[in-house]
Amino acid sequence: MKRDKTISYIVIIAVWLVTLASLIPLMYCGLFDYATGDDLGKSAKVHQIIIHGGTFFEVIKQALASAHETYINHEGTWASNVILALQPSIWGEKFYIITPFLGMLALGIGAGFFL
């Protein structure tokens, strides 16, 4: 019985190591990630508020207004527009580098929730 537990722990550790090793190329590529397309378009108004010294509440209000505008136009991405409006490059282009890491964190938390 003890041998079965040992083998099972070895398998679990091996799976974790393979999973972490498979994330290394993603983390490396993430160092060269830049905002494009929807990232820039959906967050332009929020970025302007930050540039002009807007408050935290003004930023949140504009992100919600962006989502509401999409909802009114019957587009199905209205819920994700809040997140798109608050993407990291609204504080500067150099901050977009954290986006892949946030995605991997969200994926890890989501997968860990079901373990």
Could you list the spans in which at least 5 consecutive residues all have pLDDT below 50? none
Q: Based on Cα principal axes, name the global outline.
A: elongated
The major beta sheet can be summarized as: none
- The figure for the number of domains is 2
| Assembly category | single chain
Number of strands: 0
Provide a count of the helices. Answer: 5
* Radius of gyration, taken over Cα atoms and rounded to an integer in Å: 20 Å
> Could you give the distance between the termini?
23 Å
The overall average pLDDT, rounded, is: 87
Assess the beta-strand content as a share of residues. Answer: under 5%
Main features:
115 residues; mainly alpha; 2 domains; 5 helices
Describe the structure.
The chain is mainly alpha-helical and 115 residues long. The chain has two domains: 1-32; 33-113, no CATH class. The chain has five helices and no strands. The protein has helices at residues 2-30, 38-51, 56-72, 78-85, 99-113. α1 (2-30) runs antiparallel to α5 (99-113), α2 runs antiparallel to α3 and α3 (56-72) runs antiparallel to α4 (78-85). It starts with a helix and ends with a helix. The model has no long low-confidence stretch (mean pLDDT 87).
